[in-house]
Amino acid sequence: MDHTKIYADFLGIWELEADSCAYQQSEPPVSGHQIISDGPGGLTLQMSWADREGNTHTYSFAGIPDGKARPFAGGPLADAITISLPSDSELKVSASLKGRELMTAKYLLHADGQFMELIQVVYLPDGSTPTNVGRYRRRLQS
């Protein structure tokens, strides 16, 4: 792994602070974590969370953080994904369908590097933009 990359500060295991969640779309999770790792395909983001009913959910994807849209097997929700690094403290993931951006997720590192805020925005056909926000505490740095 080359930790000299601009995204090195994002790498690690991040634990959700569930009481920080402010969700406009769906119910916020009661617990969760994100693992951001470096690999041959660029960044891998693995998410795991539990809902109020006790069901656990996992999702992962990988991509090169170069700002280029790449094919993505998101079914009817997304056919391309773009990962970019607007700055050394912001990682942005965008999902689109037929060239139309439908969702963005911004990972924002706090200055101390021990906290990360995740802001997810969905762009709905009616023009509304429900936003979900959660804060993560670094549990382990890669």
Structural notes for this entry:
This protein is an all-beta fold. The chain has one domain (8-17, 29-141): Calycin beta-barrel core domain (Lipocalin). The protein has strands at residues 12-23, 31-39, 42-50, 56-63, 70-71, 80-87, 90-97, 100-109, 115-122, 131-141. The protein has a 10-stranded antiparallel sheet, with no helix packed on it. A hairpin with an 8-residue loop joins strand 9 and strand 10 (131-141).
Outline:
This protein has strands spanning 12-23, 31-39, 42-50, 56-63, 70-71, 80-87, 90-97, 100-109, 115-122, 131-141.
CATH class designation: Mainly Beta
Question: Strand fraction band?
Answer: over 45%
Run of helices and strands: EEEEEEEEEE
Q: On the 0-100 scale, what is the average pLDDT?
A: 93
Give the spatial strand order of the biggest sheet: 4-3-2-1-10-9-8-7-6-5
CATH architecture: Beta Barrel
The oligomeric state is: single chain
CATH superfamily: Calycin beta-barrel core domain
> What overall geometry do the principal axes of the alpha carbons give?
globular
Tell me the distance between the termini.
10 Å
Largest sheet at a glance?
10 strands, antiparallel
- Unreliable sequence segments: none
Rounded radius of gyration (Å): 15 Å
Number of domains: 1
Structural class: mainly beta
**CATH topology type:** Lipocalin
Give the helix proportion (percent range): under 10%
- What's the count of strands? 10
